[in-house]
Specification:
7 strands, alpha+beta, single chain
Length: 124
């Protein structure tokens, strides 16, 4: 099989010399990240600042809006929620776990949500 340079430039590669072209591989995902810094939720898109929010829910709603807009524009998107909470006290104790410097121990989680366009339906 040979690939014509014009077709390669336009992102189309023939599946066979007489068949229809195959769509190009998907582009890199739009990366939307949320994290709480000093009590303020920050939303970024592809590493660039997008907005500050006072609570988690409005920040998530904005991150979701950005991800859905990317999908509507033909891309796909990933939301990463960087979450940090104080560690739970050990069983049978009421005091929180503290580090050697006296600060509370934190549990860090990263949750990921992927947004993609729905697959087209095949009609027979």
């Amino acid at each position: 099989m040979t690939i014509d340079s014009d077709e390669a430039l336009h992102g189309l590669v023939p599946s066979n010399p007489t068949g229809p072209p195959v769509p190009p591989l998907p582009r890199a995902a739009t990366k939307v990240e949320m994290r709480c810094r000093r009590g303020i939720w920050e939303v970024t898109r592809d590493g660039e600042f997008h907005g500050h929010y006072g609570t988690r829910l409005p920040a998530f709603e904005e991150a979701e809006r950005v991800a859905r807009a990317a999908v509507a524009g033909g891309d796909w998107a990933i939301i990463r929620l960087h979450d940090e909470r104080p560690a739970a006290p050990p069983a049978g104790q009421s005091k929180p776990v503290r580090l050697a410097n006296g600060e509370p121990a934190m549990v860090r989680n990263v949750r990921t949500i992927t947004f993609r366009a729905a697959a087209p339906q095949i009609r027979r």
